[in-house]
Design brief:
The protein is mostly helical and 214 residues long. It is built from ten helices and no strands.
Length: 214
């Protein structure tokens, strides 16, 4: 195996193992020692590939941003209409948040400002554009309300994503993160859809067995 390919494989393994720990326990409580032990590798190997925990956090975030960008494109290409595209996103959210520690985004914001800014840039660029494109498509297809302000509603939606992670509003001891995220998206979708769209939403949700009670 060529040195560069071997190096990439090691880095991929480190990212995968670190992500497992972050998703299970959050970011703050995990140290580089914990990661090395979890990976069964020396700390020297870990530090040679990722000199700091900040580097690891940014690298994992980059992978997720790229994956989300691919998913957005895939859903847009596969969906028969704007509502089906949102339903696909809802299914992805449900699966992702079921596996994620509720404190993960809070830890990212508080302890890793560089990675947090990268997340904000992603949210206000690609995600914002994806939502705006979806709303415009739904209006054109006659399944979303024509009287809504695309810019305002798109900004509302991207802020809802972060809102669900706020422990001051939705304490993790009282609220399930997955249920909160799916409930907010469900509420948003019904709010922008017209009567024809509402019937389509109900049909898709029955087909996919999506409920906000989970």
């Amino acid at each position: 195996m060529r040195p560069r390919l071997k190096e990439m494989k090691v880095q991929e393994q480190i990212l995968k193992g670190t992500e497992e720990l972050f998703f299970r326990y959050g970011i703050k409580g995990i140290t580089m020692d914990d990661i090395a032990k979890h990976m069964g590798m020396s700390k020297r190997t870990l530090y040679e590939n990722y000199p700091t925990k900040d580097d690891l956090v940014s690298a994992i975030l980059k992978v997720h941003i790229e994956k989300n960008a691919e998913n957005c494109e895939e859903y847009r290409d596969k969906a028969k209409n704007a509502i089906e595209e949102i339903i696909m996103m809802m299914m992805q959210l449900r699966n992702m948040f079921n596996a994620m520690n509720p404190r993960l985004l809070y830890d990212l914001k508080k302890f890793h400002p560089k990675a947090w800014q990268e997340f904000q840039d992603f949210k206000h660029n690609l995600i914002m554009k994806t939502i705006m494109d979806n709303i415009r498509l739904g209006i054109k297809q006659g399944i979303y309300r024509e009287d809504i302000d695309v810019n305002i509603l798109s900004r509302l939606r991207i802020e809802e994503i972060e809102l669900a992670w706020n422990p001051e509003i939705f304490p993790t001891a009282s609220y399930d993160l997955t249920k909160v995220q799916v409930s907010l998206l469900d509420h948003f979708l019904y709010g922008i859809a017209n009567v024809k769209g509402h019937r389509m939403i109900e049909r898709y949700k029955k087909q996919q067995n999506i409920t906000v009670t989970l």
